[in-house]
């Protein structure tokens, strides 16, 4: 059903006063039809308010000087020719609504001129912008326009070609983000800023399948006040700055680009403080991306040999001999071992590659980063992150046998390890460097009376898993950094885990890491285990003393992480389950429990469940009780 309503305009028109004409459109119609149905007209100085989820298409062209204030409150308001919304006065596009600007197939018209446009949101349902540009391409869509963002907002184009503001356009961002979207199945629309655009108080710019370009002439260069915090680009987007008097001369503090995006910048000083992602830099002969302060790379891109890839002059670190550039990686732990090419030029042609000015350094904010250095060789086409294992003198490293850290790299590790161990001479020291070490089949550690086992302190961890992999130690490796990881989606017992892992006995002294949404029921099989318990997911249940390893040991702490629960269910009255231990708690527990709590008491009456223990709160937490018990708590 089509519904068109009129609010007060007919009465106001009788007195020839400026009126508000409110049209509620539930299905697609034209402005003329809607006005006729409502018995209304639009006069100079009136306000048009479009409501309803239907599309209202303007089919009236008003004379120059006809002032019309417009609010698109709901749905879509479409214009198909210049002057269809009058001139001069304000247009407001509210959150959830869209102004659809359809460019006619002939000419290159300025569709909107000399007015303020207030924008909010990402458009009506089925659209991807508060403003959507459709029809023929035109970079003269807006002329002498001031955009005022009322919230984060988006402008979208539904066809390839050039779109954008023509001259003297101002974006008052009001600390919001503007997203430019190319809403097409294939190809990339171009959004071009021309002739003296101004960007004020922007929280950021984001590009989605869009080419952002700029030009300038005697109208003046484009300006940003203050510097825009970031320009974020998806893999299909491209940014090109134009000439030195064009847009974005030092306008962005940080570029964040997915791998496959393109940044094209001429060789004038840019002042970039951070570069994220893996954009391609430049296509022109003079294109250089200059990093003056901090360069940030994604470890996942480095692992596959991607970071910066240029057919242009290349990548420049520092702009003066006194520059100090810090090189950062988002996750050093992924880059253990080997050397990683950060940058590879497309060819070895003269003048391409990397330029150095000042000093380059690598952050040393964590233990992994301390293993890396920048290798500045005579090969100007490559900058290398060089791994140094910090290997002590005279040791045999497991990496010497081709073993790689990381769960994803465990294939073949067991065979390599067992072959290497078989050839170790008595008196050797076998060293595990930084990393998490996994094996895809059972391995046997050498006899420590003949071979010393050394794990890089605080960094190397041997993972025992209940996935069918066992690590036999004879005698046991120093358990300080050994982690037993058990993962179940249903109820299981510690004995089940031992059997599943093919352990002869549970490795004494190791720490336990419980994951998975199921319940792990502890038993005194691990009575002598000394090490920390970490309960990350699901529930760990204990019912008697010894179920949680050795008591009265300050190193044997229990950590219940957010979203997990430790459930204490004493099997007899006044059973002590935890004795002289510290229990660290955070969060409200596993939501699968009847009464969730990070620490939950169940079944029989007992105030001695925890004896001489300490509770350490790491965050807001919940302790719960259920069942038939009348008293639970700390005894002494």
Give the gist of this structure.
With 636 residues, the chain is mainly beta.
What does this structure look like?
With 636 residues, the protein is mainly beta. The chain contains five helices and 53 strands. The protein is elongated.
Task: Tell me the total number of β-strands.
Answer: 53
> Low-confidence stretches at least 5 residues in length (pLDDT < 50)?
1-16, 267-271, 344-352, 466-470, 472-481
Query: What is the helix fraction of residues, given as a range?
Result: under 10%
* Beta-strand content bin: 35-45%
Terminal CA distance reads: 75 Å
Radius of gyration: 34 Å
> Quick check: average pLDDT?
75
Q: Main sheet?
A: 23 strands, parallel
What is the global morphology? elongated
Number of helices: 5
Kindly name the structural category: mainly beta
Ordered list of secondary-structure elements with their pairings:
Blueprint: H1 9-14, E1 20-24, E2 29-30, H2 31-38, E3 47-51, E4 55-57, E5 69-72, E6 76-79, E7 91-93, E8 98-103, E9 112-121, E10 131-135, E11 138-157, E12 162-165, E13 170-182, E14 190-194, E15 198-208, E16 211-215, E17 223-225, E18 228-233, E19 238-240, E20 252-257, E21 262-264, E22 274-277, E23 280-281, E24 288-291, E25 294-297, H3 299-303, E26 314-317, E27 324-329, E28 339-344, E29 354-356, E30 359-362, E31 372-375, E32 382-387, E33 396-397, H4 413-422, E34 429-432, E35 435-437, E36 443-444, E37 452-455, E38 460-465, E39 471-472, E40 482-487, E41 492-493, H5 494-500, E42 511-515, E43 519-521, E44 533-535, E45 539-542, E46 558-560, E47 565-568, E48 578-579, E49 582-587, E50 599-601, E51 610-611, E52 614-621, E53 623-625
Parallel strand pairs: 1-3, 2-4, 3-5, 4-6, 5-7, 6-8, 7-9, 8-10, 9-11, 10-11, 11-12, 11-13, 12-14, 13-15, 14-16, 15-17, 15-18, 16-19, 18-20, 19-21, 20-22, 21-23, 24-26, 25-27, 26-29, 27-30, 33-34, 34-37, 35-38, 36-39, 38-40, 40-42, 41-43, 42-44, 43-45, 44-46, 45-47, 46-49, 47-50, 48-51, ...
Antiparallel strand pairs: 28-32, 31-32
